[in-house]
Amino acid sequence: MKIRGALTLQKRQVLIFFVLLGLSQAGTESAHYSVAEETEIGSFVANLARDLGLEVEELSSREARVMSDYNKKYLHLDLLTGDLLLNEKLDREELCGSTEPCVLHFQVVLENPLQFFQVELHVKDINDHSPTFLDNEILIKISEGTTVGTTFLLESARDLDVGSNSLQNYTISPNSHFYIKIPDSGDRKIYPELVLDRALDYEEEAELRLTLTALDGGSPPRSGTTLVLIKVLDINDNAPEFPQSLYEVQVPEDRPLGSWIVTISAKDLDTGNYGKISYTFSHASEDIRKTFEINPMSGEVNLRSPLDFEAIQSYTINIQATDGGGLSEKCTLLVKVTDINDNPPKVTMSSITKRIPENASETLVALFSVLDQDSEDNGRMICSIQDNLPFILKPTFKNFFTIVSEKALDRESQAEYNITITVTDLGTPRLKTEYNITVLVSDVNDNAPAFTQTSYILFVRENNSPALHIGTVSATDRDSGTNAQVTYSLLPPQDTHLPLASLVSINPDNGHLFALRSLDYEALQAFEFRVGATDRGSPALSSEALVRVLVLDANDNSPFVLYPLQNGSAPCTELVPRVAEPGYLVTKVVAVDGDSGQNAWLSFQLLKATEPGLFGVWAHNGEVRTARLLSERDAAKHRLLVLVKDNGEPPRSATATLHVLLVDGFSQPYLPLPEAAPAQAQADSLTVYLVVALASVSSLFLFSVLLFVAVRLCRRSRAASVGRCSVPEGPFPEPLMDVSGTGTLSQSYQYEVCLMGGSGTNEFKFLKPIIPSFQVHDAGKNMGEIKNYRNSFGFNIQ
Fold first, then answer.
1. Average pLDDT, the chain
2. Which Gene3D superfamilies does this chain map to (predicted)?
């Protein structure tokens, strides 16, 4: 139990003092005092300063205090007078029960130097309790044939006082049949016995009511009474008999409630109701009645409430067996409670030092005591702390220990120590108690800030918004408090041409870096600078780190077509011979992108064509190639719209327009393409070679056909004068070629065609065929080809 501090006006403080074992010693002296129980609070016990041979001033200077293992603080030490006073009323019965003498042990602790004094306080008993009976009525059944001088055990009274104030005598109310006898007992207790002085007569008086009075030896004496009800029974000449007078049993204190303890059995030679035996507790105290119960029919003794070895080690129980005729016999049951290790050690802390300067050594950290309520090995304890700590554990006086720092500490190596006090008893199983103490180490500024990296690489995508957070630099300081508070700053750049102040800024508190303006990858791809970190210690310490910023490209440039030019000038025309094989390279679209990386990866796609499926564009290099064989049915002019798209997110694109002219060989490479004109220009007819292949067996039929074609061509020439066509200047590079198997005309017919330029109209002169040769079986085929060819150029033959 802990003892409360003596001065009520003085604030309780944590004791911090240095213990130098080589210069101080702990002495032990004893003092003995006595006080009567129920003495008023503040009563004088003794002058402790005089008895210990100390000056009164020493009590304050050496911080004298009274300590004990009790939970309550019974004594109070007046440091101004040295008097030892009662802090509360003492109840001897509550403190010690029936134990005599009642002695309370205290320790007086003095510091500077550390010194202990043992104080014993003897609490004297006063007559403040009257004898009491547990039962208000005692029932005794006595046979009328009971012989004179027979004794009957009566329930004893209970007096909490001890010595002369305890129970001393019993009396019974005046009567003609009984008197009280008090036999000698080995346990120094007084048990009343009722002695039959004159024979009973059931017919004369079947029931007697007597008053049993218990008297103590106090001055004045106190008393207690109970009613003794005597019922006279018919004759019964045999009393119950026990096989043995003493039963002894050992019970562990952890026996479950309701457990069977022992069975007490007696025999009666009588028969019928006189042979039926009932069992009861005799002279049982309140503790016995609360703890045990007996089956009145079987004599089984069971556990009623938990056992506690630390409170009561044994119980002596008197068991009375009574038959149906009122005869009884008694035996004694001795229940010994065996101890188990059910109480862990307790640690009582007297003082703790929670903060130690890192340059201090041999500082007192804690003063504490340990206690285990078990007995023998179960109560023996081992106290220890961790081995890997710069602290040592020292025993001082009795069960007191101190923890002292062994050497100077380093806060940067370890700023906090968790000391675990481990107290283990030697019981089975061993019980352990741990008490944790946290010791903090105070700091000095001996460490400069350190960046988490010597250099940082930050990535910023171009076209960023101003004041964008682009990254963070971080530095840590192993010190604490203001010594560890770091301030960040930009150091002057080594490159004087770099406008660092307009590019980035830094938050001095948290190291966040911000871009002050929008960056352009095409203008500035990377730059670097140095940042500094300074703590707020005295003197201040600092360090620096290098930061490199890489600008990431964004897809902010659309592809640009280099070829063919898309500047609004006259379109470029690509010539393709009709004899071209599939995969023939028509042209190549060339484009560039101002971005980099995948943003500059270009892909090509044919978006629109005059005749889908005739041409194809290779996706990766922009080459325009024929997709299949050309035929005379294919239109002569084609307009291709090629989409050029980059690989950015989102993608950007551009388009290129190609004009392709199909020619028979290269005899007509400069056939005009229509200028960019309104939509109605598409209705204008193009100049065509009209080749009439007539297969006729007779010359008359051939003449009629030629005449018909000549008339139709003249009419069509007049109608075509309305439209215009741009004709490239210069002579044809080679004569008209005949392509066998792919052209419209067969080898049997050749015509000269002259295209007249300069007037804006196309004039066709159809000459007679050279080396005419007609084949009848080709007539139908040639007529169909003529029709298709005519329709491709916009002619209408009726």
1. 78
2. Cadherins
